[in-house]
Amino acid sequence: MRRTSHSGWLRTGSCCLAASMAALVTLVVACGGDNDGPAATSVVTPTAPQAPGGGPGTITVISSSPLNGQNGRLILITASPGAGGPPVAEACVQIRSDGFTVPATTMTDKKADQAPCGSGAAKTTFPEGTYTITAGVYAPPAQAAEKEVKLDVKVAGNVTVQIDGKALSR
To answer: Residue 152 — φ and ψ, nearest 5°?
Structure first.
């Protein structure tokens, strides 16, 4: 039985990982809260080294802090151009437990004629720029969010966002 070595692959992967980690820049984006609690905070991190000038990219919600008291509801996350306008992308996740943590979810194209949380949409590639991310908890069939947080994200290549579950908890 012939044994193959993956050490070349591991060395290459380790170099890429080390270069990626060295190039990551972490921004803390604070968003004003209401009088009921602290301001929502989210971490935005590029997922790959960026060439000078950035470029288009995706927005992926990588996780959240735990959402408490919202079991059975939905979290709808939308992205709108920073200058205003309707959402151009969305992500929708059903909250399945108390203390729920949002799993990694990449934002997908929002179709004007489709209800939120539709299926089959393509991953959104955002032009470079600033986008407002809104995460809201809904109890279907409600049309208004029970709790909501907003934050601005600068896209200059692929970025990840972490949602503040405490601000969305009951």
So the answer is: -100, 140
Asked whether 132 and 80 are in contact (CB, 8 A), the reply is yes
Q: Look over the chain and give the mean of its residue pLDDT values, rounded to a whole number.
A: 74
- Distance CA(168)–CA(138), nearest Å, equals 10
CB 137 within 8 A of CB 74: yes
Q: Count CB neighbours of 4 within 10 A.
A: 5
**Torsion angle in degrees (nearest 10) through CA of 114, 143, 149, 168:** -120
CA nearest to 60, candidates 13, 136, 121, 125: 125
Q: In terms of DSSP bridges, do strands 159-163 and 147-155 run parallel, antiparallel, or are they unpaired?
A: unpaired
* DSSP state for residue 79 in the 8-state scheme: E
- Note the pLDDT of residue 137: 96
User: Residue range 3-17: average pLDDT?
Assistant: 36
